[in-house]
Amino acid sequence: MAAEIRIPKIGISATAMVLSEWMFADGETVAQGDVIYTVETDKTAVEIEAQSAGVLRVTGVEGENYSVGTLIGMIEDAA
């Protein structure tokens, strides 16, 4: 089963943030705990870890601003 990757809620007031960088390319295999992307608010930058292992499917675009909860990718089960 695929795991969704969404823009996280960081802090109390952040409602949107910039997807600053993917650490892996679309189609690469990631392990649970790998840092897979970073996001930035007006106050901080945060590294986000994979919550499961599998093949990364990227839909979010680096440099774009996304609302909290927006789907930006998936981690598919490695077959």
Keywords:
79 residues, mainly beta, 4-stranded antiparallel beta sheet, 8 strands, elongated
Tell me about this structure.
A four-stranded antiparallel β-sheet has the order 1-8-6-3, with no helix packed on it. Strands 5-4-2-7 form a four-stranded antiparallel β-sheet, with no helix packed on it. The chain is 0% helix and 48% strand. The termini are close together. The chain has 79 residues and is mostly beta strands. The protein is elongated and about 40 Å long.
Portion in strands: over 45%
Oligomeric description of these chains = single chain
- How many alpha or pi helices? 0
The shape, in one word, is elongated
Q: State the secondary-structure class.
A: mainly beta
The strands making up the biggest β-sheet line up spatially as 1-8-6-3
Query: What is the H/E order?
Result: EEEEEEEE
